[in-house]
Amino acid sequence: MRKLFALIILSVGLMASCNSDLAERVEVLENTTVAFLQSSIFDLYSECSELRAEIAALEMTAAQADVTALKKSLAALETEIRKLSSLLDTMMDGYYTSEEIDTLLRQMSEDISRLQTSVAELEKRIAETSATVSKMYNPPVNFHKADLKVLDIGNSYTQDAQTYLPQIIKASGIDNDFSLYRAFRPSASFKTWVDCWNDSDNENYSVDFCAGTALDGISGSGRASDGALFRKTLQSVKWDIILIHQVSTYSNDYFLWEGDGAGGYLQELIRIIRITNPQATIGYLMTHSYRGTYWANSEGSSYQRWRNIADATKQLKLEYDIDFIIPYGTAVQNLRASSLNDSYEFSEDGTHMGAGLGDYVAGCCYFESLLAPRYGVSIWGNAFRLTDLDESKGGRRNITDQTAVVAQKAAILATLDMWNVSDPDDYDM
User: Please, are residues 77 and 41 in contact by the beta-carbon 8 Å criterion?
Assistant: First the structure.
C-alpha cells in the first residue's frame, strides 16, 4: 500500500510540473490519487464496522473494563477516519495551492497506512481479549465473498477428504474465484500445530494448494522445529475460513481436547488463529471413524466410534460457537449403512479411507458443505467417475454410475443431518 501511494503521488507531482493550471491539476487528482484514497477510507470504515460487531459479541463474556477500553480505541479510530475523509473532501474545493496539495497527499498516504496498522492492532487486542473466555466471537461464513480464501489445518484425514476434490470441482463446472489450501502434517493434533507455531514440533510438514486459484508464496515444505512457513501462512493471508480437526486418536473424546496432554491445546490453537486472522470463520472438519475391526478402535464398532466423534463435535460447537462443520465423517458412516458396505467398510488399512468410493464420499461432502452453497451447484449428478481400480485389494471400490449415486446421497444426507446416520438406500433423489 505504501508503495502504491508513493507511485501515485510521484506521478501526480510530475504532471503538476508540466501543468500550471490548478483546474487541470484537480482533474488529474480526481481521476487518480483521490480515487485510491477514497477507496482506502471506505475500506477502513468497513473494517471498523466489523470490529464493532466483534466488540459487541464480547459484552456478555469479557470483563467490562476490557470491553470499554476496546470501544474507546475504536471510537478514536473512527474519529480519525472521519477527519481524513473530511479533509479529502475540502481539498478538492480549491482552497489549497498546488504545493499544499502535494504535502496533503503525502500526509494522507502516511495517515492511511498508520490507521491500517491501528486497525490491525485493535483486531489483535480483540482476539486476545476473546481468548480469555471459552465462548469466543466466530464470524458467520460468507459463502458469497469474492475470492473466498480457505485454509484447512489438519493431517492425513484432510488428504482423504480432498483426494478427489479437484476432479469433483472440475466436473461441476464452477468458477475458480476461491482458493483452497491445506496445512498437512502426518498424525497432526491440535497440539501438533501449536508446537509447530512455537518451533517445537519434531516432524516435517507442508502447506499445499488444493483447488481454485493459487496464491503467491504460500505453498512449500516446512522442516521439523521450524514453524516459519506455518506462521507465514497464517500471517500473510487474510483467510475467510480456517478449518481445524483433531487427530483420529483423540477425535472421539472432547474431554482430552481442552487439556494440556497430547490430545489437548484446542484453546491455544484457536487463540493463534484468532490473533492472526480475527476476521476468519473457524470451522471444523468432522472426520470419519475407524473400521470396526481396526486394532485402535476402542469402541469395537465404526458406528459407536462415529457416535462419539459426533458428540465431541457437538461439544466443540457449543463451547466455541463453531457452526460451520464439514461432516464428512457422517457421510462415510451413511455410506457404511448402505447395501454397498462390506467388511472393509471402505477402508484399506482400517484407519484411512480406501481409494475410490471411500475417498470420494468424503470429497462429495466437502464439496456439498463448502462450494454447493457458494455456487448453487449440488454434488447430486456430478459426473466425475473412476473405474480402473483393482477391487481385489480390500477397501477399494470403483466410482461407477451406480456407486456414485449412493455416495452422493450419503454426502447430501450428512449435510442435512450430521448428528444421525441415514441409509442412502432409503431415499430417492
Answer: no
Question: CB within 8 A of 232, min separation 6: which ones?
Answer: 217, 218
> Cell numbers 444426507 correspond to what residue?
413
In 3-state terms, the chain is what percent helix, strand and coil (to 5)? 50, 10, 40
Q: Using CA atoms, how far apart are residues 111 and 422, in angstroms rounded to an integer?
A: 57
Q: Is the pLDDT of residue 3 over 80?
A: no
Q: Is the pLDDT of residue 17 over 50?
A: no
Q: DSSP secondary-structure letter at 251?
A: T
Over residues 351-379, the mean pLDDT reads 96
* Domain boundaries, given as residue ranges, for the chain: 2-130, 148-426
Residues 6 or more apart whose Cβ sits within 8 Å of residue 312: 246, 251, 252, 253, 254, 257
SS3 400: coil
Query: How confident is the model at residue 231, as a pLDDT?
Result: 96
Mean pLDDT of 261-267: 94
| DSSP letter assigned to residue 361 | H
Please state, in angstroms and as integers, the Cα–Cα distance from residue 295 to each residue in 44, 91, 158, 301, 305, following that order. Answer: 55, 74, 22, 11, 13
Confidence of residue 95 (pLDDT cuts 50, 70, 90): low
Cα–Cα distance measured from residue 345 to residue 395, given in angstroms and rounded to the nearest whole number: 7
CATH no., domain 148-426: 3.40.50.1110
Q: Do the first three CATH levels of 2-130 and 148-426 match, i.e. the same topology?
A: no
CATH no. for 2-130: 1.20.120
Predicted confidence (pLDDT) per residue in 369-420, tens digit: 999 999 999 999 999 999 999 999 999 999 999 999 999 999 999 999 999 9
- The pLDDT of residue 7 is 34
The b/e string for 320-358 (b: 16+ C-beta within 10 A; e otherwise) is: bbbebbbbbbbbbbbbbbbebeeebbbbbebbbbbbbbb
CB 286 within 8 A of CB 325: yes
